[in-house]
Amino acid sequence: MPQGTDPQPEVRLLKMNGLDAKFAVLAGVDGAGTGTGRKWTDDTARFQFRVSDLSASDLYLRYAVPEVTFRQTGPVRVSIDVNGKPFDSFLRTAPGDGEFRHPADGILAKPFEPFIVSIRINPPYVAKDDNAKLGILLDEIGFVPRGGQR
Amino acid sequence: MTEAASILFAAAMTYCASLGAGLMLLRGLKLDLARSEERFFGFLTGAGILSLLIFALAAFHLAYTGVFLALGLLSIVASYWIGRGGARARPALPPIPALWRIVFWIFFAAYLFVYLPNAAAPEASADGVAYHVGLIARYYQLHSYQWITTSLYADLSQGLEMLFLFAFSLAAGLGRQSAAAMVHILFLIALPFGMISYGRRFGIPRAGVAGTLLFFMTPVVGKSGTSAYNDVAVAAILFGLFYVLELWAAERNDRLLVIAGLLAGFAYAAKYTAFVAIPFAIGYVIFHLWHDKAAAIRAVAITAACAFILMAPWMIKDWIVVSNPVAPFFNTVFRNPYMYPLMESEYRYTMAHFNQVAYRDIPMEVCIRGYKLIGLLGPVFFLSPLALLALRNRRGRVQLLAAAVFGVTYFTNTETRFLIPALPFFALALAMAVGGRAVALVLVLAHALLSWPAVTALYSAQYAWRITEIPWRLAFVRTDEREYLAKKVGDGYEMAGLIDAHVPAGEKILSFSDPLARSYMHHDVVVAYESAWGRRMADAIWAAQAESSGPSRRVDYKFPARAVQRIRLVETAPADPSRWGVNELRFFREGREIERNPAWQLSAWPNPWDVQLAFDNNPVTQWSSWEGFRPGMYIEVDFGALIELDEVNALCVPDECNIRAKIEEWSAGGWHSLGAADRGVTAPTPPRLRRAAISYLKSNGVRWLVSGSGSWAFRDFLVNRAQWGITPIAHTREHVLYRLD
What is the ipTM of this complex? Predict the structure, then answer.
């Protein structure tokens, strides 16, 4: 019999084509955990994290707003909730790649206890073919050390 | 183009070598057959003989391209040599009416135009890539059988797969897999000519053609017959058997029974469910010789002996490899460590209630939808009850009898394609029943229209198992083969490639998923549900991650201290369908555990092979009865010397822990109860069970895991991979490949 205690599973940073996305993306990202590169979010998306602690950490998003969708939507606001409570939001006023960081120390997460981060994109891009509502092209979302390079 | 040419060459060689072998036998028997009959029976019996020879060559590690090529050429040349010497007088069969001849060739050619490229295209059928070709690809690598005790599919008779192996060896590149499907289409092409010949011989030429076309154009027949499966070949063999028995009944030439026996044996060798061919053949001759006991005994002896020639190799192989001549079935009769009785009953139930389709829904599913039961017959078969009108004449009655006998095993597996062996008889009976020329013609036209791939798309379920395209370019110019396979086989093909890329040669991989595309990979994957070994691995994982199935119940048996040498835990509860299991059995004296000793002799009944698992200090492994428990089942320890005890603990899974077991000791020449007081308690879950499970897998040589998104372990492996001690190495949309740390 193996001795000692079990290591706790930790999900800190989700890459949309990465393995953890297969189970930690709860909703709103079609094809999460597969293929290559970033994925389209719906107008809302939900993610589950489990971390040991968040001290000296930032909530981090790497994303893109493509030119083609920006032409229809204009500036888009991305609102972020943690466990259903507003955390922060930002306005993206130009198409292109972007990053977002915000100190995460205030998030009351118990060690290794799952919590939910959700994002809302307003206004979404509405596809003409099927009226699907698309948000942003998301590459990564999660928690990174403050001041660290991504 | 080279690949395409090699596929055609391999198929042609298989046909000619089979025909050559069969013609030699027919000529040796001096049978009076029409030319079309000679070709039909020659091919079928020759295929059986060739299959037997390939089995023998593989048994002697001679499964090489050169050897097979020499065998094929020898058969062809010898047949030509024996057959030279001028034309013999042959019986002429009555001609087919001109209209029906035209109808036959139009529809036969049209559907052959669809079928041929589908057979020659890269093999993408689920069972084909998993085991029909998957296993023979391994055999070809090894030039012999692989000694496989971890796949129930390797236990099934593989008479047709021996022909696949022959063709596989003669083709090149990805064409090898296609060559196997091309062998199957040989039977699909041969059978219509046999059916027409039967119609001409027995005075029903119009019904013969109409019935033939009803069979040939049926969507599931086309789909199966162009895949590396065996259903259509079985239909051809069974029809050949029936036909030759009818000839025998008319001529009473006992040499025909040699053919009948060989075909009955070949039916068993091709597919277990066709075992009914043997009682059918024997019953048929007994029925016709009821009043002549001596003749009946002789006829039965000839038939049975010839059948045995083609059946025996598969029974002997299974007996040697997995200790069960009819593996993977009848495991309570032929007990063995490779397949648990409970697994067998689960497998039987799953097949007999395929996708949980109720019997009342079967007609709609097999005639129209074609999805849940995998394959469709077409709406024309809603008219099946009309076939009963064929009972009006003798020929119709025997057709329906044969359909009933060969169809009876359908209820062991309710997939649509399991109706195929009975379908030629049913189609002929239906054609005879409708009688009138115009009605039969309308029926054929309707079936031709409704079975055309573009039309089936209009009424069948979206994902019905059917032919969807006519890939001539892909089949014969061989463009974009890998893209085609990635699309058709799907995720399992991609994962097969990743396994070949990442896993070192020779390492054992356990799959908690479907069998993947075995035929397109060089590694051997053991699928958890296919054997007792795989099930033990899966159960260890299950016990580690599911709270309800963890070893959380302990039964303490306390009794006045006494010295015992042999002691056992014996079940006393009334019989019950659930199994009885013990994860750990421990012995105590005054609260201190008696240290386990290699000198202890352990035994159990049933399943004596797993008894060590109740004494291995690993709580996720267990000895289990693996069948419904009943009084008298036991686990026994012989300490080899007297040891003083006052307590026994049995750790078990709550669902499998029957506290009506009691402790007995061997004394005075018999087993006697120790009168122990038992008390069940909830035991604390031991720590690090996931690591314990992985440790067990590693001790069994497993170094890699594949988990599919449909499996119960998929999420837990992903989320808790640090607890398991496994590292994801590659993943696709549906599968993840892990290395055990």
Answer: 0.82
